[in-house]
Every structure is written in C-alpha cells, then in structure tokens.
Amino acid sequence: MTGASLFGIEMVNVFLAMAILIVIASFVSLYRGIEGPGIFNRIIAVSVIGTKTIVLLVLIGFIYERPDFFDIALVYAILNFIMTIAATRY
Amino acid sequence: MSDTTTITNILTVVLLLTGAFFMLAGTIGFVRFPDFYSRMHATGKCDTLGEGLMLVALIVYGGATFVSVKILFLIIFILFANPTSTHAIAKAAYDVGLEPWRKLDDEVEWVTVKTESIKTEVKNDDLDT
User: Fold this and answer.
1) Mutate which of B17, B85, B98, B99 to test chain A, going by most A C-beta atoms within 10 A?
2) Would you tell me which residues 62-81 of chain B have a C-beta closer than 8 angstroms to some C-beta of chain A?
3) Domain contains A34
4) A4 belongs to a structural domain
5) Which of A26, B16, B65, B78 has the fewest CB neighbours in a 10 Å radius?
6) Nearest by CB to B9, which of A11, A22, A59?
7) Above 50 in pLDDT, residue A2?
8) Chain B positions in Cβ-Cβ contact with residue A23 (cut-off 8 Å)
C-alpha cells in the first residue's frame, strides 16, 4: 500500500465519499426499479444496482483493508451476469 | 511523503472522480429518459465506463500486488459481461414487442410535410435555371 494522505485529506476518506456517492446512485436507480413500468425496467434496475454493488464491495475492501472482499466482488459479478441472462431467457 | 506517492494519489483521485461522474450521469439518464431503450442506452455504456475507471483507480492506488490482479480480472469480466447482459435484455424486450418511443404523430407529420415542400421548391428552382 502507498501513502495514506493527499493535501491533508486521508485517502480512506476519499474512498468513503465515493462509496457514499455510489450508495446514493443506487437508491436513485431503485426509484426506477420500484416505479418503472413493465418488467424490463425492473430487470435492468436490478442489473445496474448489482453493477454498482461490485465497485462498492471493492471500495469497502480498500477502506477496511480486508482483501476478502475482492473475492466476494468477483463472485457477485458472475452471479449478477448469470442472473440477468437467466431473467432475459425465461 | 515522496513525489511518486503524491502523483499516485492525485491520479487515483482524478480517476475516481471521473468514474463517479460517469456513474452519476448514467443514473440520471436511467431515471430521466422517457423510454426503456433510451434508458438502457444511458446505463449500458456509462456504468461500464464509470466502473472500469473506478477499478483502474483502485489498481493504481494498490500498486502491483496480488489484489491488483484480482481487480484486473474483475475489470476484464465486467467489460465482457455488462454489454452482453445489456444486449440480452434489449433483444428480449424487442422480441416481446416493446415499441420504441416516438415523438407525437402531429410533429412527425409536420416534419415530413416540411421536408417534402422543401424538396419540391428545390426541383422548381432547378427547372427554372
């Protein structure tokens, strides 16, 4: 790991701010998932939220310095992809 | 704090902010666009790019370690999987018969009439000369 601060701002706080931004974006997408007309808007809302969750997991891994979260993010990406393909096939 | 550390951190912050900008733009488009296909146009590209940029920023921050290789695999997988799933959803919606959004019929008729009149004017001018 490289140094932990830039111009007096801790890098961990930068990661935390990015994580909060992603959570806000996920909730804004959730509005379309609840409101959006039809099944396809909901499918793509779930897909988008899952995509944001992958970055969120990697950021959490960097914030708490626990490398386990990267494996979870990989598995989550694969599951998200399979779920989307299955939902569109049937 | 050495110079390389500062450069690395600045690069990380810039890439993170660019990725967050693309992600927020994709989310705003996802909520605001009028149609399913245009919503997919907003999310399918912006999310892939924003996510790739943020993960590249984390690779730059982490340096050359085993963790970075894992994140690189994640980026490659996302670059394959995200357009594929977007295409699958769009094709399923098209097969079901979801109509793409159009403008109001009056506006479309008005536009076609206008262009036809312009074409006839051009033809008359050609005949005169």
Assistant:
1) B85
2) 62-63, 67, 70-71, 73-74, 77-78, 81
3) yes
4) no
5) B65
6) A11
7) no
8) none
Q: At what angle do helices B66-96 and A39-63 cross, to 10 degrees?
A: 170
Residue type, B84: T
> Rounded to two decimals, what is the model's pTM?
0.77
Structure tokens, B10: 């600045």
| Number of neighbours of residue B9 by Cβ within 10 angstroms | 22
Please give, rounded to a whole number of angstroms, the shortest distance from the CA of A6 to a CA of chain B. 6
Count Cβ atoms below 10 Å from residue A5 Cβ, excluding itself. 15
* Model pLDDT for residues B49-101, shown as the tens digit of each residue: 999 999 998 888 887 788 888 889 999 999 999 899 989 888 888 887 767 66
Asked if B14 is an interface residue toward chain A (Cβ–Cβ < 8 A), one would say: no
Give the count of domains, chain A: 1
Model confidence pLDDT, tens digit, residues A24-79: 989 988 888 888 777 888 888 888 999 899 999 988 888 888 878 888 888 998 99
- Which residue is listed with tokens 């963790």? B67
Q: What's the pLDDT score for residue A23?
A: 92
